[in-house]
Write a structure and sequence with these properties.
Layout (H helix, E strand, L loop, with lengths): L1 E6 L20 E5 L7 E4 L5 H12 L5 E5 L5 H4 L14 E7 L9 H7 L16 E7 L5 E4 L2 E7 L7 E7 L2 E5 L23 H25 L4 E5 L26 H10 L4 E5 L7 H17 L5 E4 L5 E3 L1
Parallel strand pairs: 3-4, 4-5, 5-6, 10-11, 11-12, 12-13
Antiparallel strand pairs: 1-2, 1-14, 2-3, 7-8, 8-9, 9-10
Helix pairs in contact: 5-6
This protein binds zinc ion (ZN) (2 copies).
The site of one zinc ion has 7 residues, from α2.
Length: 322
């Protein structure tokens, strides 16, 4: 199993002299398996997918492409490279798209949400005019598994500001997990700065405990899906305030924005016993130099806790062979 990073920036593309090393393109990862009969898997279609498209066409040498696109969710930074993905314009290419059924916009299907960015108000070509063969599939958690030949794709809800899916791809005894955007479940009742669980009314206490239970269950579920994975690619946009100087984007100032703090990602990776963790969805304001420092901090964090997980920062064009 080969996993290649084509975009690892969070929220918005940030090309420029301070983002050359880690890259400025938004989320896109490609998973390819040793058997050429199996489809190529693409996790999210942020702006990184544009260049990935040229690479895939080069590899195919004129043969039609068989692609499975797995979308974590439809926030811009995870879909807006799609109209610039050249394989969608070429007859004979087959694309199977999978994305979460969204309760936030239950009146719209995954296809309708995807098609919106290719309506004439936003883009010159409409989704219905694309020459490749594209199918759209809404995923609901209760199904939670897809099979493509010998490849098993499991999916699970992570915690984000909308329904967001994480994916686990398994083949030939190897496995990789991608979380999409993820903030470990947080009990919103704690957000009040004067919060004291002792001062809650009986009714509030009951509600607080109920939320804690759900939080706990969801965290356990995410850890279960990550358990023993050879590679975990995980949203780690923010850093803990107490350990970083001014100029870094801290989790404490971004509670409920839907992204993880790097220490939560590292704890999850250690608890779930994963082999390699790749920290990603880099904060757009963080420079290469700052991300270098977050990597050094992360390695020390794991060493101090006696962990054995191999820690990496996602770098555009980096490839992992599992
Ligand atoms: Zn995102
Ligand atoms: Zn998002």
């Amino acid at each position: 199993m080969k996993v290649k990073i084509w975009g690892c920036r969070g929220s918005i593309p940030v090309p420029g002299p301070t983002t050359v090393k880690y890259g400025g393109n938004t989320s896109c990862y490609i998973v390819q398996l040793d058997d050429p009969q199996l489809p190529t898997f693409i996790l999210d279609s942020g702006t990184g997918i544009r260049e990935a498209g040229f690479s895939l066409l080069g590899q195919a040498k004129g043969k039609p492409l068989d692609l499975v696109l797995l979308f974590s969710h439809t926030h811009w930074d995870h879909i807006n490279g799609f109209p610039f993905f050249v394989p969608i314009y070429i007859p004979g290419n087959k694309l199977q798209l999978y994305g979460p059924f969204s309760f936030a916009s239950a009146e719209k299907s995954f296809k309708e949400i995807m098609d919106l960015q290719m309506s004439h108000d936003y883009f010159p070509v409409r989704a219905d005019d694309l020459a490749s063969t594209i199918t759209y599939n809404d995923l609901k958690e209760k199904d939670n598994k897809l099979n493509f030949g010998e490849v098993v794709v499991k999916f699970f809800y992570v915690n984000h500001t909308v329904q967001c899916l994480g994916y686990r791809i398994e083949h030939g005894g190897k496995s990789m997990v991608y979380t999409g955007d993820h903030e470990p479940y947080f009990n919103y009742m704690r957000l009040d700065p004067g919060f004291d669980p002792e001062k809650l009314s009986d009714e509030e206490k009951e509600q607080f405990e109920e939320i804690n239970f759900i939080v706990d269950q969801r965290n356990k579920q995410v850890a279960e899906f990550c358990r023993g994975a050879d590679l975990l690619i995980i949203d780690s946009q923010y850093v803990p305030q107490k350990d970083f100087p001014n100029g870094y984007q801290t989790y404490e100032t971004k509670l409920n924005w839907g992204h993880s703090c790097v220490t939560d990602s590292l704890d999850l990776a250690m608890n779930a016993n994963v082999g390699k963790v790749v920290l990603t969805h880099h904060e757009p304001l963080h420079t290469d130099e700052q991300i270098d420092y977050v990597l050094e901090y992360s390695k020390n964090y794991v060493a101090d806790k006696g962990g054995s997980v191999d820690v990496h920062m996602a770098v555009e064009k980096q490839e992992f062979e599992l």
